[in-house]
Amino acid sequence: MGESLDIVEKVDTDERFGATSVILPATGRADIKAWQKSVQTLLRTLQRPRYVATGLMPEFQQLDGRHAFIKNHQLPPYEKAEWKAEDSSITMEQKLKLYAEAMASDPAPLVEDLNAKLVELDDIVFSEHYCTEGGFSLDDIDLWSRLRSITIIKDVQWPTKLRAYMDNLSALGDVPLYDEMAL
After folding, report:
1. Of 141, 49, 167, 129, which Cα lies nearest the Cα of 177?
2. Using CA atoms, how far apart are residues 36 and 32, in angstroms rounded to an integer?
3. Rounded distance, CA 158 to CA 122, Å?
4. Per the confidence metrics, is the pTM higher than 0.85?
5. Which of 25, 44, 26, 24 is nearest to 36 (CA)?
6. pLDDT (tens digit, 9 = 90+) per residue, 158-182?
């Protein structure tokens, strides 16, 4: 099965699904990719334990679903290969403990760092309607879906333009944000 953006692109270019070329192609913006890379560890630490802890999303309502997510999604400082290896020295019990500790730790310093990083992103997002000049593109689908995950983190302070971007795309796609279940 293709990656999510490949599927979106296929649907947008195949007349069997309706009007084509509604979504502009990805631009490969290096500044957005660099920003995403700069927050990767921070977001893994803040988001992943909260997904599991809410238990409100359908995929996390069952214990098996939560355990599958924990088994397949490493927390810092571990790398994916080390976390997921069949012969990993990290047991499932240790993974559960690491997730619980991450959730129990004071998030304030990390949220403060995240808030500063969101101000940086606000400066590079084109408008409250799309992240790249020219219109709605695959850039938006990629960025918005990543930013949506941040709405599960309580006390995040969104810069005005970036918050409007989140709300506008949420309404446009009829996909709710996680603010109401933020931890």
Report:
1. 167
2. 6
3. 9
4. yes
5. 44
6. 999 999 999 999 999 899 999 999 9
